[in-house]
Design brief:
The chain is α/β, with parallel strands linked by helices and 296 residues long. It folds into 2 domains: 3-163, NAD(P)-binding Rossmann-like Domain (Rossmann fold, 3-Layer(aba) Sandwich), CATH 3.40.50; 169-293, N-(1-d-carboxylethyl)-l-norvaline Dehydrogenase, domain 2, CATH 1.10.1040. It contains 14 helices and 9 strands. The strands form 2 sheets. A 6-stranded parallel β-sheet has the order 3-2-1-4-5-6, with helices on both faces. A 3-stranded mixed β-sheet has the order 7-8-9. Strand 1, helix 1 (13-22) and strand 2 form a beta-alpha-beta unit. Helix 1 (13-22) runs parallel beside helix 7, helix 4 packs parallel to helix 6 and helix 12 packs antiparallel against helix 13. The protein binds nicotinamide-adenine-dinucleotide. Nicotinamide-adenine-dinucleotide binds at residues 7-13, 30-33, 36, 64-66, 70, 73-74, 95-96, 121-122, 124-125, 243, 246.
Length: 296
Amino acid sequence: MASIGFIGLGNMGGPMADNLVKAGHEVRGFDLSADSVARFVSAGGVAADSIKAAVAGASVVVTMLPAGKHVRDVYTGDDGLISVCEPGTLMIDSSTIDVETARDVIALADAAGHQMLDAPVSGGTTGAAAGTLTFMCGGSDPAFASAKPFLDIMGKNIVHAGGPGNGQAAKVCNNMLLAISMIGTCEAFLMAERLGLDAQRFFDISSTASGQSWSMTTYCPVPGPVPTSPANRDYQPGFAAAMMFKDLDLAKGAAESSKTFTPMGARALELYKEFMDEGGANTDFSGIIKHLAGRK
Ligand code: NAD
């Protein structure tokens, strides 16, 4: 069994670390929040009071942090992971961050003799608890092969998307597409209703025709056609609009740095901003249908 340091024990990192403990690994966790550490200890983890203490003697480190600046600090700051870990440590960053930071940090980790992957996830807190996350991984073949047994414990679909940063690239492109398809699906249901077409009838037709998408058949933004979708529980998340906004903001940065024209992604960012300003931040992202319904 491996000795694992886990940094960032929040809504996602907490249950991910729990699953490594349940699989029999020795996991030492560190988080700036004492409450998060206490919850982890009650689930069988070992508390560490610093990054250095969490990774002492560890052969594997997993990080699950809010954003790129936290990842940069935790890896490259004074007493950061790259300097305090033993050379040869396997580092897995599962935070959702910008591609550029992921590539910079992996290059620095490689130069210091570590192996590192960016491995952002989809599947949310439910997938984290159930160990059914999808991991989109960027990094070398050996780093991916070393990480796979640990990712298999925390996830169900483990995909190697290519070299460093490609996990983040896959995540940002997928979520930009998801936002666009959700907004399009909402628009279609709203217009169908106003044209006198019943939502269920429209669903029955479009879900088996060329308008079909995941946003329609799995996550339908109107109540009724897909009983498990958040629309049936007053748009409780699920995947919060604030998280989608974060990912669309990352997509905007990626579009700029890659000089890609993404007018639909840019418009989706604006619409999610308006929805959040109206108080929708903690609503499921499919709840944007309420914002669109109120617009002329
Ligand atoms: P969270 O805010 O619940 O957890 C982040 C944790 O990191 C917090 O507990 C915070 O105290 C800790 N932290 C911040 N800086 C730290 C530092 N320097 N040292 C130690 N700990 C530090 O966020 P979350 O929902 O767990 O999300 C984590 C990442 O996963 C984000 O990048 C998010 O975009 C991504 N993500 C979240 C979801 C979701 O449904 N929540 C889904 C997919 C991806």
